[in-house]
Amino acid sequence: MFDTLSDRLSGIFGKLRGKGRLTDADIDATAREIRLALLEADVALPVVKSFIFNLKDRARGAEVSQALNPAQQIIKIVHEELINILGGEGRRLQFAKNPPTVIMLAGLQGSGKTTLAGKLSRWLKNQGHQPLLVAADLQRPNAVNQLQVLGGRAGVEVYAPQPGNGVGDPVQVAKDSIEYARRQAKDIVIVDTAGRLGIDAEMMQQARDIRAAVDPDEVIFVIDAMVGQDAVQTAEAFRDGVGITGVVLSKLDGDARGGAALSVRHVTGEPILFASTGEKLEDFDLFHPDRMASRILGMGDVLTLIEQAEQAFDEDQKEKMTSKLLGGEQFTLEDFLEQLTAVRRMGPIANILGMMPGMGQMKAQLDELDDSHFDRVTAIIRSMTPQERTNPKILNGSRRARIANGSGVTVMDVNQLLNRFADAQKMMKQMTGMMGLPGARRKATKSPKNKRKGTKGGSSRPRVGGAGGGMPAGFPGGMPQLPPGLDPNALGGGGAGGFKLPNIDFNKLMKQPKKDDEN
Fold first, then answer.
1. How many whole angstroms separate alpha carbon 15 and alpha carbon 443?
2. How many helices (H) and strands (E) does the chain have?
3. Cβ-contact 193, 108 below 8 angstroms
4. H/E stretch holding 248
5. 375-to-337, 409, 425 alpha-carbon distances in Å
6. 3-class SS of residue 106
7. 25: which DSSP letter?
8. 31 contacts 55 by C-beta, under 8 angstroms
9. How far is CA 156 from CA 120, 123, 124, 143, in A?
């Protein structure tokens, strides 16, 4: 959603990196370009004015005028101001002292309100709660059925005493659901209310009546992030007409300009609680202003990537892999299949790679990545016997032909996978040595000549970041650095026990024409 804004900001920052100091003219020109970039992204004018005022005020301060690298300081200021616009620190749901906690959802029709009710219930269930979905949208055709389907997929009970489609009293349904939740020992009630194609007096009155009937602890406004300025105006209308306590951004995976997401917190004064990024129930998580600001500036989102990995890789799998490394056992194709399956559970590979710092410069390549490549790799490994997965060396020509036929690929594809897997095995051994596990001493003292390979004087390849390693040049000085043991420069070769990181061959992962897929 923020690709266009990210590209514009990257171009603006690129012009500053060659300057030793910033003059007032430089600051004014930079602020003017950032102002245009924000307006083109459909950010509300009051938000833009506040952003540019703070930017200029801080850019002319001592923190920049005395800086050795003013470009990095400007990036740091923009990063911090984006965080402020998005709400500073994220707020979490407020739970009632005496259950059940009542959460009322409000918003226009088509904003993804009912889908978000299912996502929120699944998220709360995974947090250890017992939510109850309430079908109080009795106007929209099949709204009750849709909520029942979503509740079934999420494993959450749905309270739907009325069929909907214009039949039933939504206020009475919402009121009765509270007592039903108490009898069923549900600690959270999520009330899905009706929406309209536009704001009208009848919808606002019904929302006020439901609020009065259930006395909710949270009134969450669901905003379609693709709508633009109209979404901000609608949020203001609900804030004044019904009273909202928080906002959820839906459809953040769309290709709109994203101005609503940057404007709604500043305009309404209410925090953004959650973000929804897709159609699946799992495409939903807490909203973190600092992480979103980092994404907009192309800095990646490593923390979210780690959290998704922790969810995808179960504890038994992590312990098993750790024990294998500690015991010096061989990394097999069976292990590789388990790792690949877990990575696929994290979502599209382009989204995963996009969270890594520096990958924002490769957006064109990421857009062309084809997840079916990983499905073909999975099919190849599944076509092998357990013995072949454990010991690929026994794979002769006839076995490879059988595997190719069983997985619907060519023998060349099987050969390429085995060659790359052999490289991965070598890399795993070297990583084991670098971490001080079995084999480390032998690797570290193998030959002092390794230090002299490459350039003269024993120097390694140019460093990626600054003197301390970690983030690439151009990132804010306040960004966290990687630990010494994870310095990417140490992985680039040149040191004892170093190894070369594998290059990502994007050509192998690109989407292929249909005629190629048929072969």
1. 44
2. 24, 8
3. no
4. strand 246-250
5. 11, 11, 21
6. strand
7. H
8. yes
9. 10, 11, 10, 16
- Residue listed under structure tokens 């929406």: 195
Name the pairing type of β-strands 284-286 and 272-276: antiparallel
Q: What is the pTM of this model?
A: 0.62
DSSP conformational letter for 465: B
pLDDT for 125 equals 93
Cβ-in-10-Å burial (0-12, 13-18, 19+) of 299 comes to: buried
Instruction: Please tell me the predicted confidence (pLDDT) of residue 385.
Output: 92
Terminal Cα-to-Cα distance of the chain (whole angstroms): 35
Handedness of CA 114, 119, 121, 124 (dihedral sign): negative
pLDDT grade, residue 322 (50/70/90)? Answer: low
pLDDT tens readout for residues 201-260 = 787 888 889 999 999 999 998 887 777 667 777 778 888 888 889 888 887 766 556 677
Tokens of 140: 């929209």
At 188, which amino acid appears? Answer: I
DSSP sequence for 259-300: HHHHHHHHHH-PPEEEEE-SSSTTSEEE--HHHHHHHHTT--
Q: Which residue has the tokens 């923190």?
A: 63
* Interval 449-503: pLDDT, tens: 444 444 444 443 333 333 333 333 333 333 333 333 333 333 333 333 333 333 4
Count of positions (residues) in the chain: 519
Q: In 357-396, where does DSSP find H-type helix?
A: 363-367, 372-382, 386-390
What does the DSSP 8-state code read for residue 471? S
Quote the crossing angle between the two packed helices 289-296 and 70-85, to the nearest 10°: 130
CA dist., res. 253 & res. 232, Å (int): 18
- Kindly state the tokens that stand for 490: 């140490």
SS3 191: strand
Long-range contacts of 142-146 (CB under 8 A, 24+ apart): 143/114, 143/192, 143/194, 146/114, 146/115
Q: Which amino acid is at 260?
A: A
Helix, coil or strand: residue 518: coil
- Give the position of tokens 């953040």: 252
Q: Which helix H or strand E contains 132, and what residues bound it?
A: strand 131-135
The kind and range of the H/E element at 144 are: helix 143-154
Q: Residue 42 burial (CB < 10 Å; 0-12/13-18/19+)? A: buried
**Tokens standing for residue 6:** 């990210």
What backbone torsions phi and psi does residue 30 show, to the nearest 5 degrees? -65, -45
Contact 489, 462 (CB under 8 A): no
pLDDT of 516 above 50? no
